[in-house]
Amino acid sequence: MRPTQVIHFYFHRNRHNIFRQILKKYLKYMAGIYLHIPFCKQRCKYCAFYSSTKHSLRELYVNALCHELTTRRNYIKEDIKTIYFGGGTPSLLTLGDLAKILDTIGSNFEVAKDAETTIEANPDDLSTEYLEALLKLSFNRLSMGVQSFSDRQLQALGRRHDAQKARKAFLDARAAGFQNISIDLMFALPSSSGTEWQHSLQYATELNPEHISAYNLTYEEDTPLYNELQKGNIEQISEEENIAQFEQLMQTMENAGYRHYEISNFAKPGYESKHNSSYWNDTPYLGCGAAAHSYDGASRRWNISDIEQYIIGIEKEQPLFQEEHLSIQEKYNDTILTRLRTSKGICTKDIQENFGSDIAAYMAKAAAPHIASGCLEQSQGCISLTRKGIFISDYIIRDLIMVN
Length: 404
What we know:
Radius of gyration: 21 Å
Structural class: alpha/beta
Number of helices: 16
CATH superfamily of the largest domain: Aldolase class I
Strand order of the largest sheet: 7-8-6-5-4-3-2-1-9
Strand content: 15-25%
C-alpha cells in the first residue's frame, strides 16, 4: 500500500485487541489480497518502506509467497474482490512469477469475475510487450510511480526514469489496452516552487489517467534524503508553500473533473481504488509477503520485515509474524483515523450500532466545536472534513479519538 501523508495528514494506525462483536457486519464486504513485492533496482532517496536489491532471492521469495497464500487460504472466507501487487517494485517480477502467484490465488480462493487486479510499476519497466502480457494475465489496473514530471526533481529523488519515459510509459499502457491507470505524484519536494508543481499537475491531467494519488514528501529518518536535509545540502520548503501546493493540487484536480474522495486520492467518477478503499472502509484483507499486513475484522497481523527470514520461516512452516487484537475503543480509534480521511466521512449511525451509545455521544461532543468552526460538516447522517478542516485534520482526529 502507498504512503498516505499530506501536510498534517500522516497517521500511525493502531493495531490492538479483540473485537469479535462487529465482525459479521464488516464481513459483508468482498475481501482483498495484498502481495508485497519488496524488490527494487535501487533505493529511492526518500523511501523508508521495506525493500531490498537482493534480486537473487526473487525465485525463492515467489515460492515462499505462493506457499503462504496456500497455507492461509482460510484466513478470509469471503470472495476476493481486489488483488493488489505492491512494493517495492512489483514490475521487476517476471511474467512467469506473476502468473504463478495469480494461479495460486485462483486455486485457493474464490475470486470475483470482476475483481480489481492492480500492479504497481515503475515507468522504465513497462515495455509494450510487458504491458500487453499483463493484460492477458488479468491485470486490469495499473498504478505508475511517476512522482514528478520534472527531470530535476526526479533526479533529486533518486528515481530511475525521466519525465519523457514516464509520459511514454503511460501512452504505451493506454495503447496496450489499459483503461484504468493511476499515477502517483509527490509535492513539497526540496526547493520546489508552485510553478514547478503546477507543471507536473498539468502534464498529469493532460494524460487524463483515471486516478491520481498525490503525497506530501516526508523526510523519514535513516533515508538519504533525510541525511541530506540534516547536512544542509537540501532545503525543505516552508509550511506556507507546502499548504499552497496542496491547494493547487485540490483546485487543479477539481477543474480537471477528478473527485477528491480521500485526502491523498483523486479519481474520475467510478474509478476510485477499490482495494485502497477497503483499508478506509474496514474491509478484511489478507496480506502475504515480507512486511505485509493482514486484517480479518478482529485482529491485525504483520509479517517480519526481512526477506531472508521470511523465506526461512515459510520453508520451515514456522512463519514469523506479530499479531494484535482490537478492543472496542481501539477499533473506534481506527475508524476515526481512517474514515475521516474520506470524503464520505464517519456515519454517526455506524458509530452507534458498532460501538454503542456512550462512544457515539463521546464522538458527537468532541466533533461539536469543529462543526461550529466550519472544519467539520454534517450531511446525510455523516460528519466529514470541510476544505478548511483538511488542513488541520490531525488536530481534529486527535480530539475525536479516545485516550485512556
